[in-house]
UniProtKB/TrEMBL annotation:
It holds the Pfam family Glyoxalase. Coiled coil: none annotated. Residues 3-128 form the VOC domain. This is VOC family protein. It comes from the Bacteria.
Amino acid sequence: MTQMIFVNLPVSDLEKSKAFYSAVGFTNEPKFTDETAAAMQLSDAIVVMLLTHEKWKSFTTKDIPDARKTAQVMNALGAESRDAVDAMVDKAAGAGGTPDCNPKQDYGFMYGRSFEDPDGHIWEVFWMDQAAVEVGPAEFAEAQG
């Protein structure tokens, strides 16, 4: 079985968040969606669960932080190319997200940009040259001269 990750996010407006994630490239899985939660699938292994605040509170007694003011996590997604990084961030911006909420990263072998969803959750989208992945960034840079 493929190991999966489910990223659970509290959202203030479920329908708005579903529309945002659909515009960015996620697909709604109706078998796991109701008026309190929506499963938004990016791949066979990655699912984002959008949870209303009421649903979120049924899982934990911790307060829901305002993600526009505080950051607890940054979710990172790998992309197939630099163009794919730009395309996803541009889609997020077009759907009401905040593009480049963190500084762009361009190290030659790695390129990344970020966006915030309507609730302020941060997503980093990055591309990395496979040669750098195989040998490590320092060795790759040294080999490049």
